[in-house]
Structure of Co-chaperonin GroES:
Amino acid sequence: MLKPLGDRIIIEQVESEETTKGGIVLPGSAQEKPQEGKVVAVGSGAVKDNGERRPLEVNEGDKVIYSKYSGTEVKFDGTEYLIIRESDILAVVN
Amino acid sequence: MLKPLGDRIIIEQVESEETTKGGIVLPGSAQEKPQEGKVVAVGSGAVKDNGERRPLEVNEGDKVIYSKYSGTEVKFDGTEYLIIRESDILAVVN
Amino acid sequence: MLKPLGDRIIIEQVESEETTKGGIVLPGSAQEKPQEGKVVAVGSGAVKDNGERRPLEVNEGDKVIYSKYSGTEVKFDGTEYLIIRESDILAVVN
Amino acid sequence: MLKPLGDRIIIEQVESEETTKGGIVLPGSAQEKPQEGKVVAVGSGAVKDNGERRPLEVNEGDKVIYSKYSGTEVKFDGTEYLIIRESDILAVVN
Amino acid sequence: MLKPLGDRIIIEQVESEETTKGGIVLPGSAQEKPQEGKVVAVGSGAVKDNGERRPLEVNEGDKVIYSKYSGTEVKFDGTEYLIIRESDILAVVN
Amino acid sequence: MLKPLGDRIIIEQVESEETTKGGIVLPGSAQEKPQEGKVVAVGSGAVKDNGERRPLEVNEGDKVIYSKYSGTEVKFDGTEYLIIRESDILAVVN
Amino acid sequence: MLKPLGDRIIIEQVESEETTKGGIVLPGSAQEKPQEGKVVAVGSGAVKDNGERRPLEVNEGDKVIYSKYSGTEVKFDGTEYLIIRESDILAVVN
C-alpha cells in the first residue's frame, strides 16, 4: 500500500456524477467544482517549528470535500488515487 | 453535515438583492461588492507556531460580511454553501 | 453595527474636495492620492505568533490618512464605509 | 500634526536641485536617484514577533537619504510630506 | 558515492514502462505522471529554527513515488540518479 | 558623512578596468560581472526576531566583491558611493 | 584570498568534459546539467533565528556537485571561481 509523507493524504475519488444520499451533487462537467472522496491513508503530520509533528485533522475512512484540481493522481493496483496536502481539504462530511 | 477544516468557515449566502432591516444594500449586479451571509459551521481554528489551535473569532449563527469572490461554493442537501477562510471575513454584523 | 475582524478597521470617508481647517487638501480628481477618514470601529487586533492579539494603534474617533484604493467599501444603514487593514493606515491626524 | 503608524516616518522633502554645503548633488531631472529629506515625525516602531515594538533608528530632525519613488505623498497645512517606511531609508546624513 | 546535502535524497529511477507486481502502472509517454524510484542515499536532514536537523522520513532502500519533473539528474559510475528534496516525495510504497 | 541604516553598507567603488596586484580582473565592458569596492561605512546590523541587532560581517576598510547591479548609487562631497545590503556582498578580499 | 560571507561557498570549477575515475560524466555541451567542482573556501555559516551561525555542511577540499547556472563567477589571481550559496550544492562526492 501507499504511505503518504508529512501532511499529505491519499484519497480515493468518488464518481462526481453520482448523488450520494442526502449528499452533494457535483455534475462531472462543471469546472472548478469541489470534489468528494474517501481518505484511504494519512501522513504522519506537518512538521512544527520545534521539529515535532502535528497530527492531521482527517482520519482514514473520512469522507472529505477537496478542490478538484489539487494534488497528484497515481494508479496503484488498478485503482486511481489522489495524493493531496491536508490544506487542500475543504471539509469533512459527517 | 459539513465540518470545515482549520481556519475555514461554512457560510449560507444571503440573497444580495434584498435589503435587510437597517442593513446592507448590495445590488446583485454590482461586481466586487462585499456579500452578506450566515455562518453555519466553523473549523477548529488556525494552527499556531507551537502546534496549538487558535479558536476562530466568528461563531455559528453570526451574520458576516465577506468578499464576494472568496472561497469555494459547494451544494449539500440542496442548499448552496460557501467554504471560506476566516481571513476573508471582513466584519460581523451586530 | 459592524464589528471588523482581526486587524481590520472601519472608516467613514471624508469628502476629498473639502479642506479641513489647518488640514489636508485632497482634490477629488487626483488619483493615487491619500484619503482622509474617521475611524468608526476597530477589530480586536492582529494575532501574534503566540496566539495572543496585539491591540491596534488607532482608536474609534481617530482621524486617519489611508491609501485611497485600499480596503473594501460597504454600505450600511445608508452610509458608505471602508473596511481596511491597520497596515494600510498611513498616519493619524492630531 | 501627522503621527505616522508603526515603522512609518514622515519626511519633508529637500529640493533636489540645490547643493547642500559639503553635501549631496541630486539633479532634479535624474531618474531613479536617491533623494534627501528631513524627518519631521516617526512612528512608534515596528512590531516584533513577541508583540513589543522596536524603536526606529531615525529620529525627528535627522537628515536622511531615501529612494525617490518610495512612500506616499501627502499635503498638510500647505506643506508636502512623504510618508515612508523605515526600511526605505538608505542612510542618515551626519 | 554521492552524499546529498540537507533535506535532499538521491533516487535511482525505475523504468516507467514496467509494471511492478501489484504495483503502479506508469506509461512512459504520459506527461505530468508521478514516477517510482528507489532511495539510494539520504541527506542529514532539514535544518530546524533552532539550528538542529530533523531526520528525514524516508530511508535508504525505500521505494518512493515522486513528481516526475522534480529534482536534478546526475550520472555517476554509469548510472543515472535523481537528486530531489524530501518535500517532492509524495509517498512511500510498502 | 553618511551612516547607513540596518544591514546596509556604503561602498566606494573601485575602477573595474584596473587590475589590483594579485587581484581581480574585471573588464569594465563585461555585463553581470561582480565588482570590487572598499567599505567606508556599515549599518548597526540586521534586526533579529527578538529585536536585538546582529552585527555585520564586514567592517570599515574591508575590500569586498559585490554584484555590480545591487544597491543604490549616491554622490556625496563629490565622491560616488553605493549603498548596498550585506546580503549582496559576495566575499571579502583578504 | 577570497573569504565568502554567510552561507556562501567558493568553488573551483572542474572541466566538465573530463571523466573522473569512477566518477561523473558531464558533457560540456549539455545544458541544465549539474556540474562538479572543488570547495576552496566556505563562509562562517547561515544565521539562525537566535542570531547564532549554523556551520556549513561542506568543508574546504570537498568535491561537490552543484547546479551549473547557480552563483556568480569571479576571476582572482588568474583562476576562475564560483561563489555559490550552500543551498545550491546538491551533493558531496565521496
User: Anything to note?
Assistant: Chain F is about 0% helix and 45% strand.
